[in-house]
Amino acid sequence: MEHAISRIEKLEGASNWSQWRFQICNMLRTQVHDGRNALGVINGTVVPPDSPPADAGQDVIAAYNDGMAKFDKLDAIAVTIMTTSMKKEICSMVMMHKFAKEIWDKLLSIYEQKSGQRLDFLICQLFNYRKSPSDSIAQHVAKLEALWAELCQEVLAIEHVQLPLSFLLNRILNTLPNDYFEFKSVWESRPHDQRTVKSLTEELSPRTAFKTT
After folding, report:
1. Are 196 and 139 within one domain?
2. Would residue 209 count as lying in a domain?
3. What is the pLDDT of residues 99-109, one digit of tens each?
4. pLDDT category of residue 6 using cuts at 50, 70 and 90
5. 45 with 80, same domain?
6. Residues 127 and 144: beta-carbon distance below 8 Å
7. pLDDT of res. 102
8. What pTM value is reported for the model?
9. What is the Cα–Cα distance from 77 to 4, expressed in whole angstroms?
10. CA 102, CA 181: separation in Å to the nearest integer?
11. Looking at 111, 134, 165, which one is the last position of a domain?
12. What distance in Å separates the CA atoms of residue 39 and residue 46, rounded to the nearest whole number?
């Protein structure tokens, strides 16, 4: 598990919240104990057992203790994965909470904005995005696609319209440096039905001239 956690980019704040949330949820889903996974601890499907009544028999108390032990195990896994994958400054904002769901709910309250705010945030992210020097073309496009998918969902939910794919293709092309000026011209002369993210990625990937803007 430690090796898998080390591959998750630490949560820095709003800038990488969406990617971090996706990775953490997938990581928690893989951590299974007694037939239940740690993701259930933060989404509320796995909860501690109800406290037994004061006059409960030994069998009821034993069942309660067993249930609590199993819950505590999953909760500890979730807390460890989340807090180990945060920057020190973020961890300090949630360290007063004991349980994983409390930590998760705190993060949601900080980074999951109201619909209108989130839409503005996603638009700014998409149009200000820059390629990381360590990313390949495929990785760069994949990150833009993930951001684009979130933006499309938000626009559909609020304004009930579907954004055209040309917006995403435009953003990919406009994160390319001047070395690709001729490529952009050739690409933009193509018929619209031949312009897809897959074909664009395949043509860009073999090129080595890609630089950050």
Report:
1. yes
2. no
3. 999 999 999 88
4. low
5. yes
6. no
7. 94
8. 0.55
9. 13
10. 50
11. 111
12. 8
